[in-house]
Specification:
single chain, alpha/beta, Rossmann fold, globular, AAA+_ATPase, AAA_GajA/Old/RecF-like, ATPase_AAA_core, AAA family ATPase
């Protein structure tokens, strides 16, 4: 779990110190206040905390890898690390990610630095590998991103590493026999079944490459063998889940709604183990509401709450009132739900970003999100009374 992040003189940020909930964190703020930059900073640092991200040897050996990762995640116009330092800042840029067990990973650099500098003794394993879901849909782009015949340099000019890393995760094989995995973990079976019900089918990797949409639903079937197993006795369940296709030719993912594809991304990540609550790293999701039918937002919030109840730490960024309100309405303290809101705003005096953190939904009443919807309501009421 990630306990918090400290940021100094990085991009638009002056000094931020944000404590995170082990359950769900919601980043809110107007456009241009750095919501995506904050998620990317967390992602890059969480990647840096991975043992596999370091070259065997001294910490100095790992610096070029971490420098390149920051550049690939943020893609500044100037391909140098100093371009990510806040302009006019008096000191070095510094990022520090703290784990819930007091471990941390911290790095810094100056305007003239050629690479990042890991703080001595600061690098340690904070958590398992994170997952970043960017604003734009990725499912239909995986084939092009992963195609070995495509020029890699050109692909990297188009997409930053949040897209390319997610494409690599989506391309990992999922289970072909859903019953074999879902029956062993009822937590995931319920969530996966709900995601498939939302879009009326599932996205599967086709043999010729790319994802295809297969209409259908999950159904429970009796399994005599499993009824005698210890797992079944533990959960008092003698059934397994099978996907039942509705028949017909599957559709190319690009021929389905973009909002459905975003649901498909979450489904795929759960099915191939990239997201496994309690085992894998933090889930970072930038604007889950983008291109999503508002009618689906309640179910998406319910899925996110269920994931968090099973041990998945989540940080998402949004400026959608409907999504925020469903979190407020669906939170269940009896199930130990916990949501922490972090409101980013730009300081008029020095143009730096500040943050206000609260566990009370009323914090949203101070933001432009609530003001805009209040204005819309007032205008509608005035017209009705005219």
């Amino acid at each position: 779990m990630i306990a918090g992040i400290q940021i100094e003189n990085f991009t638009a940020f002056g000094n931020l110190d944000i404590p995170f909930s082990p359950r769900i964190n919601v980043i809110i703020g107007s456009n241009g206040t750095g919501k995506t930059h904050l998620l990317k900073a967390i992602y890059a640092l969480a990647i840096a905390s991975q043992p596999a991200s370091a070259v065997e040897g001294s910490e100095k050996d790992a610096n070029p890898q971490l420098t390149n990762k920051l550049l690939r995640v943020f893609s500044p116009g100037e391909s140098r690390i100093g371009a990510l330092r806040a302009r006019g800042a008096p000191g070095r840029a510094r990022l520090c990610l703290q784990g819930s067990d007091d471990t941390r990973v911290a790095l810094s650099f100056s305007a003239n630095s050629k690479g990042v500098q890991l703080e001595g003794g600061a690098r340690s394993e904070v958590q398992s590998r994170p997952v970043f879901i960017p604003t734009k849909e990725v499912l239909s782009l995986v084939r092009a991103m992963q195609d070995a015949t495509h020029d890699r340099a050109t692909v990297e000019m188009i997409f930053d590493d949040t897209y390319l890393d997610l494409a690599a995760l989506l391309a990992n094989p999922g289970f072909e026999d859903e019953a074999a995995t879902l029956s062993e973990d009822p937590r995931l079976s319920n969530i996966v079944r709900e995601l498939v019900a939302l879009v009326g089918g599932r996205y599967r990797w086709a043999n010729e490459g790319g994802f295809q949409f297969e209409p259908g639903e999950y159904e429970e079937r009796a399994d005599p063998d499993r009824s005698r197993s210890k797992t079944a006795q533990m959960y008092q369940d003698s059934t397994v889940l099978r996907f039942k296709s509705k028949g017909g030719e599957p559709l190319s993912s690009s021929m389905t709604a973009e909002g459905y594809r975003k649901i498909g991304v979450l489904h795929r990540l759960l099915c191939n183990g990239s997201i496994n609550p309690g085992s894998t790293g933090i889930l970072l999701w930038d604007e889950p509401e983008a291109n999503l039918n508002p009618a689906l937002m309640k179910e998406v919030v319910q899925v996110l709450l269920e994931l968090s109840r099973n041990g998945q730490q989540i940080i998402l960024a949004t400026h959608d009132y409907v999504l925020l309100k469903w979190f407020d309405l669906l939170i269940d303290r009896g199930k130990e739900d916990h949501i922490r809101f972090h409101a980013l705003c730009r300081n008029v005096g020095n143009d730096r970003i500040t943050v206000e953190t609260s566990e009370n939904y009323s914090l949203i009443s101070k933001t432009a999100i609530s003001d805009t919807f209040a204005e819309l309501f007032d205008e509608d009421l005035a017209r009705a009374l005219a």
